[in-house]
Design goal:
2 copies of one chain form a homodimer.
Chain A lengths: L3 E5 L6 E4 L2 E7 L4 E7 L4 E5 L4 E15 L2 E5 L3 E5 L5 E17 L3 H9 L1
Antiparallel strand pairs in A: 2-3, 3-4, 4-9, 5-9, 6-7, 6-8, 6-9
Amino acid sequence: MTRAQFATLPETPSIELTPGVIGYPLFGQGAMLNLLDIEPGAGVPLHSHPHEQLGLVISGELILTTEGAEHRLGPMDAYQLDGDVEHAARAGDSGCRVLDIFQPVREDFREQAAAG
Amino acid sequence: MTRAQFATLPETPSIELTPGVIGYPLFGQGAMLNLLDIEPGAGVPLHSHPHEQLGLVISGELILTTEGAEHRLGPMDAYQLDGDVEHAARAGDSGCRVLDIFQPVREDFREQAAAG
């Protein structure tokens, strides 16, 4: 049984969320990490999921749109979205690196990671 | 009702976990972030909690001890600990910045943050 896991995130098997949005996931029991490298201008369109999402911008600029407002986030800016809140996200002109957290685990991401 | 939150983590009200270990929390519904700035050599002794814990080293070196093994982690090294797994953590010689994630929310941290 898994009790503790360690991984260097940009070196784990990756998943492509959309073109230019690459994730490096670590799956826990009731939550998961997903380190995202987003190319300049790339992003994910407006969507929602029942999972709560939290995150932290590590470098670059992330433009997160939710509830009709556009939030321009830089390093150490954090966010939290309740489940089912519609949101879109894209990188600024120099791209960005972001850590996304989901609870519970995104089983769609786990399947995508397992499929290679 | 809270639907979305935004915060710059080193600027939010802080909590002192132990001397030299300062946390900047963001509380969600079923999970929370806690950005930790740990001074050189400072840390938390062996302990456990029922909450699952995940994390990512952002800068510096974190020495995480669990299940009898010492793990020296650098930037973009991630970890995941099931609930009730005993662990200790301390910073290396230059300190470190780490993002901890807990699920569910650490109500003890919420009370500490509310108390100022």
